[in-house]
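An instance as discussed:

___
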Amino acid sequence: MTPWLRNGEEFLTPGEHYSYVYIITNKIDSRQYIGKKLFWFIKRKQVNKVRKRLKVESDWKEYWSSSDELRADVLRLGQENFTREIIYLCPNKGTANYLEAREQFVRNVLENKEKWYNTWISVKVNRSHIKSWT
């Protein structure tokens, strides 16, 4: 499994971070993908007729993006031909939404299909979502 990297070091545990923004790079043709992923999700379970909320770790360690094209390239070329780097650790989902979209717009991901796997930018963010980050 190709590890997630953060500042050049292997990233092993999210700690108290809730989500992250990442960039995946194809080492063969240098195409990249910018996305976001949650470390945790809330699962509801009923115990003795009381609904409880449980914090459960997501599949972030094995995750390869929502891009069908990128996932197909990973299968075709092999994981060893890709790097996965975390560029932001985020305290909440709203901050990850904002930073992912900001990086996508700043890097013009929709304007150069030879350089980027991204085909959509979709975001709905309120100023209050990023309050704890700024």
